[in-house]
Amino acid sequence: MIMESTDMTEGRTGPHRNLSVPLARLGYAAALLVLLAATSGLEGYDLFLASSILSYAISAMGLNVLMGYNGQISLGHGAFFAIGAYTAAICIDRFAVPFTLTPVIAGIVGMGAGWLIGKPALRLEGVYLALATFGLAIATPTVLRSDLFAEWTGGVQGLFLGIEPAPEWMGLDLDQSIYLTVVAYFGLFAFLTLRLVQGLNGKAWIATRDNPIAARAMGFDVTRAKTRAFVFSVLACSVGGALQAVAVQFVAPDSFPFFLSIALFTAVVVGGLCSPLLGPLLGAAFIVLVPNVTEEIWQGGSWAVYGGVIIGVIAIQSRGLAGIMTGITSWVRDRITGQTTTRYERK
Amino acid sequence: MTFFLEQLIIGLSSGGIYAIMALALVMIYKSTGHVNLAQGEMAVFSTFIAWTLVQTGMPLWPAILLTVAVSFVGAIVLERVVVRPFAEADDLVVVAVFVGLFLSIHSLAGAIWNYEVKPFPSAFSDGSVSLMVDLSIRTHTLGSLVTTGAVLTAVWIFFRYTQLGLALRAAADNRESSRLVGINVSLMLALGWGLAAGIGAVAGVMIAPVTFLDPGMGLAPLIFALAGALLGGITSPFGAALGGLIVGVLEAMISAYVPYGIEFRELIALMLILSVLLVRPAGLFGEIVARRV
Amino acid sequence: MLKSTTALALGLVLASAAMAADYDKGASDDEIKFGTIVPLSGPASAYGSTGTCIAAYFDMVNDRGGINGRTVTVSVQDDGYNPAKMLEQARRLVEREGVLFIAGNIGTPTNSAIHRYMNQRKVPHLFLTTGASKWDDPESYPWTMPFIPSYAAEGRIYARYIKETMPDSMIGILYQNDDFGRDYLDAFVAELSDESMVAAAVSYDTSTATIESQMSTLKDSGADVFFNIASPKFAAQAIRRAGEIGWDTTQFLVSVANAKSAVLEPAGLAYATGIISTQYLKEPTNPAYAEDADVAAWKEFQSTYFPKGSDGNWWDWSCYATAYTIEHILTQAGDVLTHENLMKLASNLEEFEAPMLLPGIAITTSPEDFAPIEAMSLMKFDGENWALFGDVIAVD
């Protein structure tokens, strides 16, 4: 069960190493501008879809840190997505908190829960951690349905989120207000994720993943690194969940089936492990949009096609869609400049 | 007392199901080093094949044997075509392949056989054996416990005493070294898949008479079998089978005796198992895998 | 003078509106487009065939020449029984594909997610196949209308029947732990008005493998009446288990799980004998309707257009009545295919006899009453078939 990870290091240190730092920053700023410009360019449904994708992308960014950089498997982060969503719903339903702030509270609550669960669970490894988290995912709808918490959660009926659009002088409708909020949090998490994985934390995570014993010998606090990765992933998932709840304006136990956890997992791997931003974004788009396409291909057997597409993508490139994109862009660049970029080949 | 014994029997009845599924997981784990999330769906698919054969008029036992054979071959083909390209890939990528397989096989079963529940005949008898007043046990439950025992013994002997079993284990433990000593690793991996699917098919035809056959039949047994296998130790056939039984009994007892137990039995059972794992990370009977530095 | 001119002008406008075609998005001179959203993937896929059925029905309608010369396009979408996905699909249908209305959706939590959206958009959200009571609320949600009788109303029928015929009984209840199970349970217990009659009420989750321990707890409670509030698979398990452990009771079974071939046959007809349930539809497999024109028409439709449909699966023929009612409204609407007109027609159905409804049951709605089917009949399983007994009962 020890990871053969040497062949992954290229992607893990990031293709952005080739670019100079200011150029990369310029790229990020441009991407953010495009997202902001989309506010006026897109219609209601597209804005909703984009909000949905971006909230999954935020969750996937966190999960990618846990799974990609830190090498721990979780099949249960849908549970934290649900905690975030319900926190947002209760905040709005009970305390009339402005929806723009609910992700903050959701993040705090989620981190608390993540710490409580992560502390013991992180002593488990590999398939054991996968099971522990998977169990969490299975139990989530049951707990949400329970009478014990029905006064807060609305029990089987769920909760509506009454969301007010931005003040009139801003000239934004509801979809636009929600979308802009999601973009703001997306930007924040993109920044956080990059800072974390490119900093000392990222090194600790990768070292812990590749060789925990050697990492310990080198002076990294392995347990701390794992806990940090876990808590960050939980934070991102709760914030993603809160934003998704805001976009849908309704939460119910059925919104968080175990399949959601599987979908988040899929988003991370199919998007591209260890591609900090592009991977989660593409992965999130994949889990939202591709099922609609496979349904067109074979109604009644859409999962059969969907499953095949998942396997197909990672068969083409084990670093998923982001890997494919990077491959294409560098190929194009090589054609244009007429040079060959030095690349680390797989062993 | 009768009530308690009844719960025990119910626990053994579902525990027997989990145990045999857990053995399929042990088989695949010991021979490939992975836990196949699609194992439950594959078992369901096999059971549908058996059901179709029975519908065409084939007697049940030959149908089961044929199904096991078909599953064995089918899984080898699946391994060769779909899983093989990922032999050197990261664990997470392999899990994603299993997710893809899970979705595909589930959906295919639904598309082919639809989602209505179908009764599936017991391989033993539909009756039950009376133990005392007000207490009886299904013949099928007894039969599936015996089957579990038989499969367990076979798997144990296979890994412990046969050359092939040893080769399978070696191939999973250390591919490079196995190649060096002349083991055909590629063949071993495929064989592991085939055997696991064969055991899964047996599990499926044991489950279906209890739960009815439908495409959703495999999920719950898979989860509890996984829990059982980890509790007992996924490297030990004996531990995994016992773990499956323990999980079944635990589930029944929690439902019957713990307040809110019926509602939260899955959560409580999983918490208990996790607490055991925190003390014994490799499960009750599992070997701790030495770590390479 | 001025007044009468205005009145005249207004009259002319109205008349011309009635004559010239009036369309909302999704309707045109040659097409009517509407959508239906059902689970076609995931754990609730068993109910997804209703969407396929409605689409197949309109294939038949189109083969007959369409409705008032217009082809009907049905866009069937998959929500996987997830509320968030349901909203995405509804918005896609309304905003992107531009459907005239959405009809025939399955599921309470999923339709809840689009309840407000559809009403804010003022797009008809019609004939839902879900029995929550909240859909019948024309005052707050004038654009949403269910089709099937509410679960609560059905629960009350059983409670009243038990109070009348066996007032001293002790009741054991198995219910699915979700909105569907709770709706039945709450209404049933409230109507009993004597909670001590409930010996035990235990839930199960759809993620479970078996319900054997629940059944043993119920038997141990000493109940002599068993109320089975389960979806088909678990209902069948419960009926069989009750028989196996020799728990001898009068059994009541909810209507969504009373299909003979999908539930009772797997459970074993011997164990199912004597079960009491309710019905408002004609079961195609029941020999009582062997000569029935509706059933014959259904069978012909099924064999030609809907070969995947099963005449033993409740969902597959209740949607036939739904589709027929949609067709009726579209036909009535003539050239005025607007949201408003459709809603007006849907909420003014009077004694409309949709096919497959039992004799004596018809669809009646009004602007104050958005519950189309408000009558059911009790029935008992005689070991071979369901047999209706008693009068048709009006539900509330």
UniProtKB/TrEMBL annotation, chain A:
Keywords, comma-separated and alphabetical: Cell membrane, Membrane, Transmembrane, Transmembrane helix
Keyword Membrane: yes
Membrane topology term: Multi-pass membrane protein
Organism: Notoacmeibacter marinus
InterPro entries: ABC_transp_permease (IPR001851), LivM-like (IPR043428)
Protein's UniProt name: Branched-chain amino acid ABC transporter permease
Protein location: Cell membrane
GO molecular function: branched-chain amino acid transmembrane transporter activity
From TrEMBL, chain B:
Bilayer-spanning residue ranges: 6-28, 60-81, 93-115, 135-159, 180-210, 216-234, 241-262, 268-290
GO biological process: amino acid transport
CDD domains (UniProt xref): TM_PBP1_LivH_like (cd06582)
GO cellular component terms, A-Z: plasma membrane
Principal cellular location given in the protein's record: membrane
Subcellular location: Cell membrane
One term of GO molecular function: transmembrane transporter activity
InterPro entries: ABC_transp_permease, BCAA_transport_permease
Membrane topology: Multi-pass membrane protein
Keywords per UniProt: Amino-acid transport, Cell membrane, Membrane, Transmembrane, Transmembrane helix, Transport
A Pfam match: BPD_transp_2
Entries under PANTHER family matching the protein: ABC TRANSPORTER PERMEASE PROTEIN (PTHR11795:SF451), BRANCHED-CHAIN AMINO ACID TRANSPORT SYSTEM PERMEASE PROTEIN LIVH (PTHR11795)
Similarity field: Belongs to the binding-protein-dependent transport system permease family. LivHM subfamily.
Name used for this protein in its record: Branched-chain amino acid ABC transporter permease
Organism for this UniProt entry: Notoacmeibacter marinus
Automatic annotation (TrEMBL), chain C:
Record's keyword annotation contains Signal: yes
Leader sequence segment: 1-20
Keywords of this entry: Signal
Source species, domain of life: Bacteria
Keyword Plastid listed: no
Gene3D superfamilies per UniProt: 3.40.50.2300
Chain ranges of the Leucine-binding protein domain: 31-382
CDD domains: PBP1_ABC_ligand_binding-like
InterPro entries named among the record's database cross-references: Leu-bd, Peripla_BP_I
Name of one Pfam family that matches: Peripla_BP_6
Family: Belongs to the leucine-binding protein family.
PANTHER family listed in its UniProt record: BLR6548 PROTEIN (PTHR47235:SF1)
Protein name: Leucine-binding protein domain-containing protein
Gene source species: Notoacmeibacter marinus
